[in-house]
Amino acid sequence: MRTIDWVSDADGPAIEIVDQTALPDTTRMLRLRTTAEVVDAIARLAVRGAPALGVAGALGVALAAARDAARAVARDAARAGDAGTAGDGGGAEERLAADVEALRGARPTAVNLARGVDRAAARIPAGPAAVLAEALALRDEEIASSAAMAARGADLVTELVGPAARLLTHCNTGGLATVTGGTALAVVTELHRRGALAGVIASETRPLLQGARLTAWELREAKVPFRVAVDGAGPFLMARGEVDAVILGADRICANGDVVNKVGSYAHALGAARAGIPFLVVAPESTVDDATATGADVPIEDRAAGEVLGFAGHRTTPDGAEAANPAFDVTPHDLVTAIVTDRRVIRPTAR
């Protein structure tokens, strides 16, 4: 199943996504028909994961371009005297530019979103069909990228820790975060397929529980044996010898090899370094950002206090409590054993 795709029905074109906020209780598909709906879906994490955000951004531009083309047709029909059709193309370029900026800024930390938007927007002068073709090309590239990362990453894990790997992963890096397959979780499922996986621990990923809700759901669907642990247990489980390697994804990889990923990743990297086990990052080449020198240069998204001060709609902290809620953290490159992309293996400490 593709977790994000382009569809067209009687009501016109739309972006169809799996609503990640409804999982694991309900598998609900959403059809997004306006730029505002796409921006909202990104902001509230109905669609998330760096590669998926890139595809969502590109498809969002295609949606906006298709809308303005339809308005132009309606306007021309009205000018030709078709009384049954109304339309107004005034300010079309301004509207489209505003939509592009809204999509680009929906989440600032993941580089894929801005890149996907910019790639599709560059085709606007060629018309809406060209914009859609570019967005669909990006979608197909992400599908192929997942397969390449799965194979290369599985080979590397077996090389580093042997044929019965016990892994710990953080946040969600499966098909929900891409289109199909995934990044780090694609490596996990490929090892399982090869009979080279002894087990996987999914850290719950506070405060929104992407590990407990989404990764656990995907592992169950793939019939991969797993356990869920609270985030803070990861380093101790490594110290106790229950983990052979940490494997996770990235929202941005800086030129020096610093890795920006879901908050909690840095703690797992420190635990892995102390335990002397590999810390592996799996992400497509599109996540490598050579224009950003180090993690210190990346804008880190701070999310709403309510995500930390309460749970499931109920406040769990006393009145007057304030929150610190960075959505991401930065793992310095010297703690990263290797970065696996769809094209290569990067060893930051060897640079």
Give me some keywords for this one.
S-methyl-5-thioribose-1-phosphate isomerase activity; alpha/beta; Rossmann fold; Four Helix Bundle (Hemerythrin (Met), subunit A); seven-stranded mixed sheet; four-stranded mixed sheet; 40% helix; 351 residues
Topology summary:
Elements: E1 4-9, E2 12-18, E3 29-32, H1 35-43, H2 50-79, H3 92-104, H4 111-121, H5 128-161, E4 165-169, H6 184-194, E5 197-203, H7 210-221, E6 226-229, H8 234-239, E7 245-248, E8 252-254, E9 259-262, H9 265-275, E10 279-282, E11 288-289, H10 306-309, E12 310-311, E13 314-315, E14 328-331, E15 338-340, E16 345-346
Parallel strand pairs: 4-5, 4-7, 5-6, 7-10, 8-11, 10-15
Antiparallel strand pairs: 1-2, 2-3, 8-9, 9-14, 12-13, 15-16
Helix pairs in contact: 1-2, 2-3, 2-4, 2-5, 4-5, 5-6
Kindly describe this structure.
- With 351 residues, the chain is of the alpha/beta class.
- It folds into 2 domains: 138 residues, Up-down Bundle (Four Helix Bundle (Hemerythrin (Met), subunit A)), CATH 1.20.120; 203 residues, Rossmann fold, CATH 3.40.50.
- The protein has 10 helices and 16 strands.
- The strands form 4 sheets. Strands 6-5-4-7-10-15-16 form a 7-stranded mixed beta sheet.
- Belongs to the eIF-2B alpha/beta/delta subunits family.
- GO terms for molecular function: S-methyl-5-thioribose-1-phosphate isomerase activity.
- It catalyses: 5-(methylsulfanyl)-alpha-D-ribose 1-phosphate = 5-(methylsulfanyl)-D-ribulose 1-phosphate.
